[in-house]
Write a structure and sequence with these properties.
By secondary structure, this protein is an alpha+beta fold. It is built from seven helices and 17 strands. The protein binds S-adenosylmethionine.
Length: 324
């Protein structure tokens, strides 16, 4: 637990972005804020230093005790910390802003959608959710660097065939640092956007773009296709996100931006795909972050030749990678 908090607090890109976003929305002596997933209390303490009237921190983990001690040590009197999951809070005090840094390496893996959807009931009318928007990006990976790192099974040696174990390994997501030169140039695509800022009091879910939400907000599917002009081999996909904290203040895990502790996500293919010039790679990506699932990603690819004839198909699913 403390190791996660240590990494977060050491991430200056993250800390500065949240500090700037809070500075823009807090009205000194007036604003009342809820900090959902308050951890060490860092964001609550910023809120206090920015002059807010009151901050309520909600933290499900034992780190909440440390946040109380740190508040005392820093002479901060207007932050109250509750040890609870936000969804278990029966009658939350109404606030002007809910801030929640529950962003994962894969953006939605810490249930930020489900937390924010529930957090609408913490808000006064016209209240704000921060982050305001999360956009997710995908791009084919065309270098074998990460693939070779993961795919150890074929070189175990001793005359042993580890094919089944290899298949489990490939059906998984990996937190890796991905560089711009690992990517198919110019092929990055926004495959999912959730806008928390649009009418939080209306409708049953947030505004979404580029996505078919199958059963509910927590199951999100995006389709993208990539047609290549030159022959290239694709080893998997890179995922990253951009959070608009408030309009004009962004936090991004893009390989094209300043690095953060979140790095990027690599989704390998079962087998690398060799694309001839003119052929198309169709990707269908689904994420399921319902409470009971926590996180599952599925990614499938179809390769079409230049005449649009299907050449090959691969389907990967993190559930295949679980050994129960
Ligand atoms: C990424 S940390 C952020 C900590 C702190 N806000 C910061 O920015 O330094 C997220 C924390 O949120 C907690 N958490 C996640 N979802 C929560 C929820 N819905 N209610 C309460 N705590 C939650 C986790 O236990 C974790 O400590």
């Amino acid at each position: 637990m403390i190791e996660l908090q240590r990494k977060l607090l050491g991430d200056k890109v993250r800390n500065d972005a949240f500090a700037e976003a809070l500075r823009r929305v807090i009205v000194p002596q007036e604003s009342i804020i809820a900090d959902i997933g308050s951890g060490t209390g860092f964001l609550s303490f910023l809120v206090s230093k920015l002059g807010a009237k009151q901050c309520y921190g909600y933290e499900v983990g034992g780190i909440v005790e440390t946040s109380r001690q740190l508040a005392k040590r820093n002479g901060i009197k207007n932050c109250t910390f509750f040890r609870t999951h936000s969804t278990d809070v029966k009658h939350p005090p109404k606030v002007d802003v809910v801030v929640s840094e529950t962003l994962g390496n894969y953006a939605l893996e810490e249930n930020i959608l489900e937390t924010m959807e529930d957090a609408k009931r913490f808000l006064k009318p016209m209240g704000l959710l921060l982050p305001a928007k999360i956009s997710q990006f995908v791009c084919p990976v065309t270098t074998d660097r990460l693939y070779r790192e993961i795919d150890v099974w074929l070189s175990v040696g001793f005359g042993l065939d580890f094919s089944e174990a290899r298949e489990l390994t490939m059906n998984n997501m990996y937190v890796k640092t991905i560089h711009p030169e690992d990517l198919l140039m110019g092929a990055e695509r926004e495959w999912d956007t959730v806008d928390f800022s649009i009418s939080p009091f209306h409708g049953s879910g947030f505004s979404t773009r580029g996505v078919r939400s199958k059963k509910n907000l927590s199951i999100r599917t995006g389709k993208q296709s990539f047609t290549v002009k030159k022959p290239v081999t694709v080893y998997g996909f890179a995922l990253w996100w951009n959070a608009e904290l408030v309009p004009g203040v962004h936090l991004s895990t893009s390989p094209f931006e300043a690095p953060t502790h979140w790095e990027q996500i690599f989704l390998p293919l079962l087998q690398p795909v060799k694309l001839a010039s003119g052929s198309t790679l169709e990707l269908t990506l689904t994420s399921d972050t319902r409470w009971q699932t926590k996180i599952n990603l599925q990614w499938s690819v179809r390769v079409l030749d230049a005449t649009k004839k299907e050449v090959s198909v691969q389907r990967l699913d993190m559930r295949k990678g679980y050994i129960l």
